[in-house]
Structures are given as C-alpha cells and as structure tokens.
Amino acid sequence: MQKRWAERKRPLPPEIAWAQERYSEVQAVDGSTLDALNQPFAAISMEMVYRSLYFFTQAHHRGQADDVLTYLTSNTKLFGIIKRKRKSAHPSPLELIPILTDAKLPYL
Length: 108
Hints:
This protein is mostly helical. 48% of the residues lie in helices and 0% in strands. The protein has one domain (2-104). It is built from seven helices and no strands. The longest helix is centred in the middle third of the chain and has 16 residues, at 46-61. The protein starts with a helix and ends in a 12-residue tail after the last helix.
C-alpha cells in the first residue's frame, strides 16, 4: 500500500495534506484495501475498517505490525471488516402469493 501511495500521480486531497502538516504519521485507507481483500465495496464495513485502525496503531507501537494493509487483511474476520451475508429466515410474502394472470382471474 505504501508503494502504491508513493506512486500516486494525483494531488493529495486537501484533508490528507492538512493532516500530514499537523501529524507525524497519517494512515489513509484507499482502494488498495478492496484490491487486497478481493471484495466489492458493498461487502466492506468501513466503520469496522476505521475501528480496527486503533488496534493496528497499538500493534505498531508494540512492534508487531508495520503495514496497515497487511494487518487489516490478515485479521478481517477478527475485526469484522467483511460484512457477513445475511440469510433470509423467512421468504418474502410476495413469493408466497401466486401471481394471477389474466387467464386465471376469477369471474365475478
């Protein structure tokens, strides 16, 4: 991710440039997270990605992690980064009602 960030040709968003001026280290999660997880954007819980950055920071200070992308992708299940697929316990009521065609309409 850091290599990809260094090769970035577009200008930095103003928010990230502002943060880099004021903080010693800035972590920005971009599309490379989606590439590494091989998941569509809708399958990723952005809230859990941001929440897991705290745990990366703690592991980084302990010397257990260096790259945020590697850390997030190796702990996706632990942090709940990929949304779980919901199973439908009950079928939709529309699936239970047979569709009446013109030939099957009852006569009044």
